[in-house]
Here is the input.
Amino acid sequence: MRYHERAGLLAAPAHSGDNFRVTGTHVEKLSLIRHCRLLDKTYKEIRTLLR
Here is the structure.
């Protein structure tokens, strides 16, 4: 997940009061990224798709 944040595909998620990551929409985006990578899409193409 942090790799995708550094690559610009995901925004850093908010943290709850006990410092856990809140990742509601990130799960959906990670699933989309995974499927795109299986289709040999580049990170640049995925970044464009997510905007």
The longest helix spans residues 24-38. Residues 35 and 41 are 9 Å apart (CA to CA). The chain has a mean pLDDT of 81. The two ends are 18 Å apart (CA to CA).
